[in-house]
Each structure stands twice: as structure tokens, then as C-alpha cells.
Amino acid sequence: MERIGKKQLLARIRADRASFERALALVPIDRMTDPILAGAWSVKDVLAHLAWGDREAVDVIESRSLAGSELWALPEDERNEAVVRASRSRSVQAVLAEFHEAYDRYMAAIERLDQADLNEPDRLEGLSERIPGWRPWRLLYDPTHYAEHRGPIEARFGPSRDPGA
Fold first, then answer.
1. What contacts 44, CB < 8 A, 6 or more positions away?
2. 29-54: string of b/e by CB count within 10 Å (b at 16+)?
3. How far apart are CA 80 and CA 45, in angstroms?
4. Chain segment 97-156, per-residue pLDDT in tens
5. How many angstroms from the chain centroid is the CA of residue 126?
6. Which member of 6, 24, 111, 144 has the greatest number of CB atoms within 10 A?
7. What pTM does this model have?
8. How far is CA 4 from the centre of its chain?
9. Residue 164, pLDDT score
10. Residue 5 binned pLDDT confidence (cut-offs 50, 70, 90)
11. How confident is the model at residue 67 (pLDDT cuts 50, 70, 90)?
């Protein structure tokens, strides 16, 4: 797996997040809870899911190990559903605030890392054993994740869509 510089990684994350934020801006606040995505997820659910991932990455960075939620022991679909289920009773405003706060903490944590922290598997306890061949930066950042969630939002709320659909 490729090595990456910290400036390059931060630029990629910021660009992906900015694209996602542009899609998010298309969603009227009163439509954030509409079940529009696969698995009946709403945009609010996606935001809770992304915030959870950012919080978990901060835990990994701070502990320097593959520590974190017990939800990681579940298969991906079950884990994602548990995260979404836990956020369903929360307000859109609370989830939005958490989405932004978690990202800020995530970016600040990555800023504190150095080149070796991002690229040397032995800098994260348990990484080599659990995910051979991976570098820490790849565990902390999935280059396809924002786009995966941005696409359906743009398809549903983009300019070519009927605003009442």
C-alpha cells in the first residue's frame, strides 16, 4: 500500500469533505430525516454514521492502537445499523453539531501525527496482525467513503431532481 505525506492526506480529506458538504447543502433541513437511502437511511443517519467513524479514528490516534467501540466486533452492516439505530432518537441539529465537531477533532488529531505515524504499521498496535499490508493512514481515512454517501444525496437532491420528490 502506498505511502502518503501528511499534507497530501489532509488535502485529500479536506477536498472529499468539501464535496460532501456541497451535497449536504442541497438537502433542506426538513428533509434530513426522509428515508431515502439504502436500508431506509436518511441523510441524518449518514451524518451520524460519518461522525461515529471520525470519533473512532480519534480514539485510534489517541490510543495508538486498534482500540475503540465494541461495535467493531460486528460485521460491517450490523455495526452500521447499530450506529444509526442509536442516533435515530436524536434531533437533526444534535446530529449535525456532532458531525461537525467530530470532524474538527478528527482533523486536529491527524494534524498531530507525523510521517511515520501515518505510514509505519508498527505505529498502531495490532494493525499488522489484524490488517496485514495496511498503513495507518488507510485505516484512518477511506478514500471512497464520502463519495459513497455523497452520490445518493446528490442523486436525490441535486438540481436535476424535482424539489418535492
1. 32, 33, 87, 92, 95
2. eebbebebbeeebbbbbbbbbbbbbb
3. 10
4. 999 999 999 999 999 999 999 999 999 998 888 888 899 999 999 999 999 999 999 999
5. 21
6. 24
7. 0.92
8. 19
9. 54
10. very high
11. confident
Res 112: pLDDT: 97
pLDDT of res. 27 = 96
**Integer Cα distance of 13 and 15 in angstroms:** 5
Q: 112 and 9 in contact (C-beta within 8 Å)? A: no
- 88: helix, coil or strand? coil
**pLDDT for position 131:** 87
User: Which CATH entry fits the domain spanning 6-157: 1.10.10.10, 3.50.80.10, 2.60.120.260, 1.20.120.450?
Assistant: 1.20.120.450
> How far apart (Å, rounded) are the C-alpha atoms in residues 62 and 64?
6
What is the reported pLDDT for 7? 96
Buried-exposed string 150-159: b where 16+ CB fall within 10 A, e elsewhere: bebbbebbee
Cell of 15: 477536498
CA neighbor of 98 nearest in space, from 152, 44, 139? 44
Residue type, 98: E
